[in-house]
Each structure stands twice: as structure tokens, then as C-alpha cells.
Amino acid sequence: MTDTGSDGRHPVQLVVTWTLVAIPLLYGLYNAVDAALQLFQG
After folding, report:
1. Which residues cross the membrane (predicted)?
2. Angle at 4 between CA 15 and CA 11, to 5 degrees
3. pLDDT, mean over the chain
4. Which side of the chain, N or C, has fewer Cβ within a 10 Å radius?
5. Measuring CA to CA, how many Å separate 6 from each of 11, 13, 21, 41?
6. Does the predicted model carry a pTM greater than 0.85?
7. Strands of the chain, DSSP E
8. In Å, how far are 9, 21, 22, 23, 41 from 28, measured between CA atoms?
9. Residue 14: CB atoms within 10 Å
10. Using CA atoms, how far apart are residues 1 and 21, in angstroms rounded to an integer?
């Protein structure tokens, strides 16, 4: 079995991919926390 793509050949692609995943994830998390705070504050 060969491991392709995880040997550090494309660190820029890895950073770009994680950025594309992290931005919407953090945005959704922020909105969820904001909605929860509004719900519990009144």
C-alpha cells in the first residue's frame, strides 16, 4: 500500500484546502454561539 499525498509534497494546497474548510466552519460556529447567547439572554 502506498501513501500518496501525505508526504509533504503539496503544503500550499493543504493550507488552502484547510482554509476553505475552516472559514465556513468558524462562521457557522460563530453564528451558532451568537444565536445561543441571544436565546439564553432573553
Report:
1. 12-30
2. 20
3. 88
4. N
5. 9, 11, 18, 46
6. no
7. none
8. 31, 11, 10, 9, 20
9. 13
10. 28
